[in-house]
Structures are given as structure tokens and as C-alpha cells.
Amino acid sequence: MHTLRLLRAAHNESVWLRRQKRYNYRQTMESVEDMPELLFVEHFRLNKSTFRRLCNDLRVHTSLRGSKEIPLKIKVLTALNFLATGSYQRIVGVSQNLTQRTTSRCVRQVVDALNHPTLMSKWIQFPQTVQERSLIKEEFQRKYNLPGVIGCIDCTHIAIVKPSEEEHAFYNRKGYHSLNVQMVCDHNLKIMNINAKFGGATHDSHIWSSSLVEPYMRHLHESGEHVWLLGDSGYPQRPWLMTPILNAPHGSREELYTTRHVQARTCIERCFGLLKTRWRCLLRDRVLHYHPNVASKITLACCVLHNISLHAHLPAPSDIPVTTVDDNDDSSTQTTQSTTTENRNELIRGRAMLNYLISRL
User: What keywords does the record list, in alphabetical order (predicted)?
Assistant: First the structure.
């Protein structure tokens, strides 16, 4: 019995020493801000001033708090490192003395905080005023010579592990499980709207018809404002959503329109590429090992951080992975929507508006 007590005491002392060592190291981790700026950006994707502002916003607007053992800034750095690499295993100092469980908890807490309505509405917002939409229209007109455009829309797949429930809803046509995430961006690659609620088996057109942007764009059109989004051929032609003209005659106005349409719509493809370059946890080969609901929150958090990075004018990471068209494009196998009378009428009106747009080129 005496021997057992000695062994238990030795074990408890060993555990206490390990915890004390981790605690002492965490206190010294605050010197991470002494890192050179370029190295800090490489590891955490934000510069130091932007990181400080983010920590302050999280402290003021959300329930995220630090503790004596783990300060708030360490939680944020740990989450940023995971989102930037997509792996708990790459050690860069911040997580050296955090256990796997503690690291995972920090990531979830920070992701939940980034999903707070205050931060979401601050950083991801569709243009609400005529003045905001006019500025975007002018830039698309200047860059791509297309009038009336206020954004580009498309979907991209975010790989996840096989879910235990409704697995079929997440198995996409490319042979892996994913979320099919719809985004709208402007000419500067700023994300203005995101819908990460649907599995990879869901068609782009269904996500569009279920999103809040569709009725809003419809309302703008019915109010007499001639503005539209640009989508690929997987989307239905509507007065407020312009799609390319397939097999347009060579040298025709239709071909000119499609050429400019394709050039302008590269904004959304470049947006996807930059988003996944900065926050590599979203890359297909990383795979989010989380429940779809948590994976959706991680995706939203990365989009918030993407817009924060753009606002801070941070350069794109130098180690840009190759982003193939196949990684984002689902248009080749999209199914058409049901041919109800309402859909046919909207299609006719959409083609009429398309002809009007072409006549302005």
C-alpha cells in the first residue's frame, strides 16, 4: 500500500511538473510579437497591427476571453496558425506546449467568435445602398467594360471527412465529401456574401435559389435598378443574373459579351484561389476533420479573415498552390431547374435583359 502511495505521488508530481512547464512556456509565448514582421505574416497570415485590432474586436464584441493559463492572444494565434496550415502537427512555437485537445478547443472558440453576428455583419456585407452599388458598377465598367455588374457568383468545394449522417448529401460528383459553398465577390475579390450550408451533392442553381441574395437582387430589379451578378452556365439566366452565351457566333456582339463576361468572372475564381492560399485548411488535400456544421463555421471564419486581410492590404502569400478550374467549376454537370411557368417567364425576361445589355456594348 505504501508503495502504491509513493507511485501515485510520483505520478501526480510528474503531471504537475508538465503542466507547470507548459504554463511557464505559455507566459513566454507573448514574446511571439517580437518575431520579425515577415515571419509573423508567414505563420499567421496577418501582420501584427491587424492581429492586435482583431484581438481587440474579439474581446469587445464577442464572449471570447483568455485565461491565466492561455491568454486571448495565444488562443487567436493558435487558431490563425491552424487555419493558415490546416494541420495541428506543424509546430511554429505557439502550439509547442499546447496539447492536441487544448489546441482544438482554442480553434473552436476563436472560430465561434469569428462567426459572431457583429463581426460577420462588419466584414461580410452585400452592398446595401445605391452609392455602394454604383462604386462597384463603375469599377467593373472600368476594368472589364461591362455595365451594371455589382458582383460575381460561383460555388467552390471545401473537403470534409465522411459525415456520419446524411452522407449522400455531401458526396460530390468528383468523388469526395465536401461542402458546396456559394460566394459573391466584387472587383477587389472582397467576399460580399457566403452560403456554406449545403453539402457537395447540391447543385449550384439550388443553392442560388435558396440564398438570401436571390430575392434581394430580384427586389432591386423590380425597383427599377438595372444591376446584376455574373454567373457561369450552371446558373439560370435571369434579369438580375447574367450568364455566358454558349457557342456565340464568331465576331458577333454575343461573342464580345461572353468574352468580357468570362474576363470579369475570373474575379470569383481568383477570390477562391486567394482565400484557399491564405487559409490552407480549405484546400482539398487538407480535409476538415469536423462535423459539417463546424466545417461551415470554419469556412465562414476564413472568409471573415480573408476580408480583413484585403482591408489591411496584405500581399498574397508567396507559396501559392496551383488552383485548377476543376476544383471550383461545376457548370459542366449542372441540371436545369424545373420548367414551371414562373421560371419560363423569368427566363424570357432574363434573355430580354441580356439582349438589352448586349446592345449597350
Answer: Cytoplasm, Hydrolase, Metal-binding, Nuclease, Nucleus
